[in-house]
């Protein structure tokens, strides 16, 4: 009993199968998008706190008797006082301020108070005083980083329960930190140091910053851009416009297609063997990283560049050749300018991939702990530096949980760079791409 | 003269060459440029190129070769007895370089270096004062080597400057001599440019040659120290720095394949169904934002996935599945790495499959629909079989991507080399071991380090075969419908 109006069993089953099939598709897409959202939420949730930091601001009395025993205000003599001396000055100043404000410390010793201040701040204060000995004997207002555990307490990473088991902090310190916040000594502000300071040692996550890594990554991107763009464009122009169709050019083409799919770590092995062992370039230098990433990025620039050149219609070439231009003039005066938006888009996307690449950099020694900023280029390209993705990896390998927050924060910085680059690429494409 | 200054001078010479060549061409035609074969600027360009390019090439080669040569010569001067116990020749050479640089700095600051060189103690103090830190105390032979390095560097600079300037001058002279109205300057400049283009495209070939050569030579070196039979057929991986390690590749290959298989189990259904939906069902508007959104997954750096595996997926799987079921209590596991890698691989499957499904001619669909098949029957019985070879190619490409992936497995899969079926146990892969054997202090004479090159070669060969196979399949398929 089937008609157009009543479906028989088989039709119902087939229609149900149709619906199911569509639903599978929707589920698959939803799963893929959910994975993306989950990834982003997880990273941003863990990383956003890295952009806020706990600071202690209090007047510090720079005691001449402690910091300059000879009393000559000579930097050479003052340099004998190590950061430990400055740490004591900070702790006693903090104690004095707490006493002046009438806050109950709950019977904490001076050492406990010193533990609340980051060890890094003593070094900062020392550099400040050595740079300006006139400060000696004065009372200055100084902003010190709070210890990583105190910082973690305000970000929810450290709780009263975990503090009981932790030998680096105690519930009393956390209680006092809360009181200091109420008194206005302790504050939580935007953390510019995260973007400008160098890496810090294993025990001081609160002071770790991305300064060296950002500079190292910029240097490498500079090297990649300077080398890969001209070489990639020249190679594409040759293959697309001039190369005779023979076995050699076929070989080069297959070669480029395969190079684009070679695992990135193999490029790291290449860099280690050729640039470091054979050519003797220094380890963890941006120049080596840049060269390795250049080799890796070249095929990824050549492929879109060739597509862009191919998209320029032959009539343009014929017209140019017809009025007496040579082949090279045709290409440089007409084809390349018309293909430029496509080439630049491909280059930017290639650069963005290179910026996020980690594995090859691990092999050429960029994981090393680097605290000193590299010098100005060109000689700075040979100084040791870190790179954004490697710095992230480095931080994930450390035991202090404060570094997980730093690593996730660094990923946000990396993603912001990538989004910016890709946005530029998309705008270029939308604005200048021509359909013939 | 510093290299930078030399380069500036060469650029200035080339610019002069341009002006002179142009002027000479004009005067040879008595101002009537119709007589000239090429535009006057081409005569200028060829003169500039002849003056600048050979000299620049010389400088480039020299800059690369000079340190290697000098280091070789300086190393010969070092007394082997002066290499401290537990230190390596590389460290001593690094000290020689620092010493030489420090002496240059001191000389520039006006110190009497000749006197310092005779007194190692004063030398060390002076260097410390200048902010140069040495690894070891300067020994007489290292000081001699440093002095020789400085002398050779100075001499080499002088020779380079002289040679480069002479070369530039000769090039310019020859180019200027050639300029006559009938001289084909445009063709000459273009053949110069053509060499540049050919050279650039050869870099890709050189990269492959470099990869293969460096992998092969070190692998051969490795098999001289460690039996190839044990490497390929042993099932134990336990490197010991100090000798007596077993370096069987099988636990690593097993881990790699296990992780990749899980990632494909995740990625292929999701990727393929997304591609089918986007190609066959989705409206233009949905497609225009869903496709880029999925492709974002391909643009996210792998370190981000690695961290995601480390801080989110790993603990989640451990606390909710592995521990309650008693399957293990490690947060890094094959499952963690496989799942996260699966997410990463989705766009590789979906984008390529989408292209391939779209390339199936509409007439096939119309025929099937016209016979009364539902859209899903059309997809399953007509479109997919037609697109199958291409989809297989896409999956192979995704597999090669998964096998070569490093950061996700380094951070998500663990470091223990095991042959186990339990996916919630930590296992390790080929790429993880390449990283762990080659980071840190690497001495290129122990099998424990060199094994990384053998692993690299295995990885390279394997992914290369997969890629070529995939490319061949995809290309064959494309031809079918073109």
Explain this structure.
The complex is a heterodimer of chains A (436) and B (482). With 436 residues, chain A is mainly alpha-helical. Chain A has two domains: 51-207, no CATH class; 212-432, MetI-like (MetI-like fold, Orthogonal Bundle), CATH 1.10.3720. Chain A is 66% helix and 5% strand. Chain A contains 19 helices and three strands. Chain A has helices at 9-47, 64-67, 75-78, 83-101, 110-116, 119-131, 148-154, 160-165, 171-183, 193-196, 211-242, 247-259, 264-278, 286-311, 314-322, 327-356, 359-363, 388-396, 402-432; strands spanning 52-61, 139-145, 186-190. A three-stranded antiparallel beta sheet of chain A has the order 2-1-3. The radius of gyration of chain A is 30 Å and the shape is extended. With 482 residues, chain B is mostly helical. Chain B has two domains: 3-183, no CATH class; 237-480, MetI-like (MetI-like fold, Orthogonal Bundle), CATH 1.10.3720. In chain B, 77% of the residues lie in helices and 1% in strands. Chain B is built from 17 helices and two strands. Chain B has helices at 3-28, 40-77, 89-108, 113-117, 120-129, 140-178, 185-225, 228-233, 250-281, 284-299, 302-325, 334-359, 362-370, 375-404, 407-412, 430-438, 447-480, and strands at residues 237-238, 246-247. Chain B has a two-stranded antiparallel sheet with strand order 1-2. The mean pLDDT of chain B is 86.
């Amino acid at each position: 009993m089937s008609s157009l109006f009543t479906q028989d069993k088989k039709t119902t089953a087939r229609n149900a199968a149709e619906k199911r099939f569509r639903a599978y598709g929707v589920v698959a897409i939803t799963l893929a998008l959910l994975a993306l959202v989950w990834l982003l939420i997880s990273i941003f949730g863990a990383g956003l706190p890295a952009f806020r930091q706990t600071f202690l601001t209090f007047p510090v009395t720079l005691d001449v008797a402690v910091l300059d025993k000879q009393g000559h205000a000579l930097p050479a003599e003052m340099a004998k006082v190590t950061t430990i001396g400055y740490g004591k000055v900070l702790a006693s100043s903090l104690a004095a301020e707490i006493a002046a404000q009438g806050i109950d410390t709950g019977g904490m010793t001076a050492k406990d108070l010193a533990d609340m201040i980051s060890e890094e701040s003593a070094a900062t204060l020392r550099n400040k005083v050595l740079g300006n000995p006139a400060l000696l004997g004065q009372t200055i207002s100084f902003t010190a980083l709070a210890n990583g555990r105190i910082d973690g307490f305000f970000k929810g990473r450290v709780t009263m329960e975990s503090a009981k088991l932790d030998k680096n902090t105690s519930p009393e310190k956390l209680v006092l930190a809360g009181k200091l916040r109420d008194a206005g000594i302790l504050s939580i502000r935007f953390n510019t140091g995260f973007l400008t300071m160098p890496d810090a040692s294993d025990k001081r996550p609160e002071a770790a910053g991305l300064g060296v890594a950002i500079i190292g990554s910029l240097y490498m991107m500079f090297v990649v851009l300077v080398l890969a763009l001209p070489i990639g464009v020249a190679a594409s122009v040759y293959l697309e416009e001039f190369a005779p169709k023979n076995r050699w050019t076929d070989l080069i083409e297959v070669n480029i297609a395969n190079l684009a799919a070679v695992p990135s770590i193999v490029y790291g092995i290449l860099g280690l063997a050729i640039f470091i062992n054979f050519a003797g370039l220094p380890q963890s230098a941006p120049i080596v990283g840049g060269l390795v990433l250049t080799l890796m990025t070249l095929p990824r620039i050549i492929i879109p560049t060739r597509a862009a050149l191919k998209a320029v219609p032959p009539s343009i070439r014929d017209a140019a050749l017809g009025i007496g231009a040579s082949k090279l003039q045709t290409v440089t005066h007409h084809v390349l300018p018309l293909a430029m938006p496509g080439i630049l888009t491909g280059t930017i996307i290639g650069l963005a991939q290179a910026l996020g690449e980690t594995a090859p950099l691990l092999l050429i020694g960029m994981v090393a702990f680097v605290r000193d900023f590299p010098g100005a280029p060109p000689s700075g390209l040979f100084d040791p530096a870190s790179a954004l993705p490697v710095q992230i990896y480095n931080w994930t390998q450390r035991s202090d949980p404060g570094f997980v927050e730093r690593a996730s924060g660094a990923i946000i910085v990396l993603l912001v760079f990538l989004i910016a680059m890709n946005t530029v690429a998309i705008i270029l494409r939308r604005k200048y791409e021509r359909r013939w | 003269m510093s290299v930078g200054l030399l380069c500036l001078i060469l650029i200035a010479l080339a610019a002069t060459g341009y002006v002179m060549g142009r002027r000479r061409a004009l005067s040879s035609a008595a101002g009537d440029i119709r007589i000239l074969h090429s535009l006057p600027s081409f005569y200028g360009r060829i003169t500039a190129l002849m003056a600048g390019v050979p000299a620049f090439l010389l400088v480039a080669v020299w800059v690369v070769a000079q340190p290697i040569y000098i280091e070789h010569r300086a190393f010969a001067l070092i007394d082997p007895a002066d290499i401290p116990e537990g230190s390596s020749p590389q460290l001593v050479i690094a000290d020689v370089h620092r010493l030489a640089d420090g002496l240059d700095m001191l000389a520039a600051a006006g110190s009497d270096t000749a006197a310092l060189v005779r007194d190692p103690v004063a030398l060390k103090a002076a260097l410390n004062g200048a902010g140069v830190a040495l690894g070891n105390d300067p020994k007489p032979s290292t000081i001699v080597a440093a002095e020789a390095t400085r002398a050779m560097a100075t001499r080499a600079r002088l020779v380079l400057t002289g040679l480069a300037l002479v070369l530039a001058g000769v090039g310019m002279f020859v180019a200027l001599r050639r300029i006559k109205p009938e001289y084909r300057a445009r063709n000459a400049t273009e053949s110069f440019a053509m060499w540049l283009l050919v050279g650039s495209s050869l870099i890709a070939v050189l990269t492959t040659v470099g990869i293969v050569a460096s992998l092969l030579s070190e692998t051969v070196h490795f098999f001289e120290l460690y039996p190839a039979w044990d490497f390929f057929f042993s099932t134990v991986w336990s490197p010991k720095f100090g000798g007596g390690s077993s370096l069987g590749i099988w636990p690593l290959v097993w881990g790699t394949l296990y992780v990749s298989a899980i990632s494909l189990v995740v990625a292929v259904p999701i990727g393929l169904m997304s591609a089918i939906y986007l190609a066959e069902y989705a409206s233009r508007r949905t497609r225009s934002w869903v496709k880029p959104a999925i492709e974002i997954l391909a643009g996210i750096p792998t370190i981000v996935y690695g961290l995601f595996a480390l801080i989110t997926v790993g603990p989640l799987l451990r606390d909710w599945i592995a521990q309650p079921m008693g399957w293990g209590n490690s947060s890094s596991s094959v499952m963690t790495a496989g799942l996260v890698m699966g997410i990463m691989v989705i766009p590789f499957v979906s984008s390529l499959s989408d292209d391939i499904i779209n390339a199936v001619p509409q007439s096939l669909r119309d025929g099937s629909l016209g016979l009364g098949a539902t859209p899903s029957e059309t997809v399953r019985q007509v479109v997919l079989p037609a697109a199958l070879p291409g989809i297989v190619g896409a999956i192979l490409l995704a597999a090669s991507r998964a096998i070569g992936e490093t950061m996700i497995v380094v951070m998500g899969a663990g470091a223990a080399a095991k042959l186990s079926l339990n996916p919630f146990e930590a296992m390790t892969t080929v790429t993880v071991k390449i990283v762990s054997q080659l980071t840190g202090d690497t001495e290129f004479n122990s099998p424990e380090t060199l094994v990384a090159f053998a692993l690299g070669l295995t990885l390279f060969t394997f992914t290369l075969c997969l890629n070529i196979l995939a490319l061949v399949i995809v290309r064959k398929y494309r031809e079918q419908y073109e």
